[in-house]
């Protein structure tokens, strides 16, 4: 799986799955674009990625998403791979609370709208390189909600799953592949940021094979799907959840 000189944009590369993917792509010779908001954590990822560009941006702000694409092309001249990984639950709210619409908007903006926006901005560049896209969804997009106040996240990820299929269809004739990965529980900052317990020991009980994934396992899948070895794979949704969905 050689990525020599490929230009890879990874959103949410300051932490967790995105940071692991940035390091792995970099090890395989890619020029990685490390996107996120936390300057310190972005720099920490960049120290492991020799040929990288850090772009501090909030991808839910349209002008900042545009800047991610513009700065990438200005610095590296092309885009080969877009990894729409940034996501999470910035606000939790239940249907019966008057905070619901604020939570819904923030979660949809991050997990779905920003992905659609970055995809449309990157598409002309990916068409030129016959590149590809991987979206990081969640088993929350296809299994019942796993706790109060996360309806918006489940709906956003379900939308993301279908967006992946629609985008694969629309971009197929241009030679651009689009795939989705749906992780189950992964040991990252996601749980802490979403006000979930990060008792991973306890979490193993909800999976079929009694384990929780490391971020590198999801990053591995990202590298496979974006490599030439997966040239026959598009419009797919790969589940990596230690059997969490089946058990539920
Ligand atoms: P982390 O919280 O460790 O990473 C989330 C990343 O998203 C951070 O780098 C964060 O960067 C970035 N991010 C959040 N909001 C924005 C924003 N507005 N603009 C730019 N970047 C943003 O969690 P994970 O690594 O686990 O999450 C990666 C993906 O995996 C997400 O889409 C998540 O939904 C999905 N997922 C995770 C699971 C898990 O158990 N960990 C399970 C299923 C799916 P910064 O704070 O610097 O902006």
Automatic annotation (TrEMBL):
InterPro entries from the UniProt entry: KR_dom, NAD(P)-bd_dom_sf, Sc_DH/Rdtase_CS, SDR_fam
Domain of life: Eukaryota
Signal peptide from the UniProt entry: none
Record flagged with keyword Oxidoreductase: yes
Gene3D superfamilies assigned to the protein according to its UniProt record, in alphabetical order: NAD(P)-binding Rossmann-like Domain (3.40.50.720)
Molecular-function GO terms, alphabetical: oxidoreductase activity
Domain Ketoreductase: 6-184
Keyword Oxidoreductase: yes
GO BP, one annotated term: lipid metabolic process
Coiled coil: none
Keywords per UniProt: Oxidoreductase
PANTHER family: EG:BACR7A4.14 PROTEIN-RELATED (PTHR43975:SF2), ZGC:101858 (PTHR43975)
Protein name according to UniProt: Ketoreductase domain-containing protein
